[in-house]
Amino acid sequence: LYTCPDQPRHMSAAVDVFNYRxxxxxxxxxxxxxxKTQFEKVNGFSNKYWGWGGEDDxxxxxxxxxxxxxxRYPPSVARYTMLSHTKQKANPKRFETLxxxxxxxxxxxxxxxxxxxxxxxxxxxxxxxxxxx
Length: 133
Description:
CATH class: Alpha Beta
Structural class: alpha+beta
Number of domains: 1
CATH superfamily: Spore Coat Polysaccharide Biosynthesis Protein SpsA, Chain A
Helix content: 10-25%
Largest sheet: 2 strands, antiparallel
Mean pLDDT: 93
Radius of gyration: 16 Å
Low-confidence stretches: none
């Protein structure tokens, strides 16, 4: 199930806190899968989002604008339980930032990301990377 499919895949199509239904049609938050080629085609994530909210909807818009489409497994297969966590404060500018997303897509993302790798660790289950932004 955890693969990089031909099209970007929204994996968490049925989450317990949403009564195993999509809260809205274009949701791409939670768990997703994309190939490196797809991620580069959409120019990665925007660098304009800080705090909670908007970055996943921005990614959904990037996917559509790039001629790709979001796929999902059936809800009977893609069932998730949201882990207990402290809710983050919503970014008050998330809707304004999202509204302007399509205009920025080509200049805001992987091609404008500034970072420095501090250290990393490769394990059998994951790769951990610490960066400075």
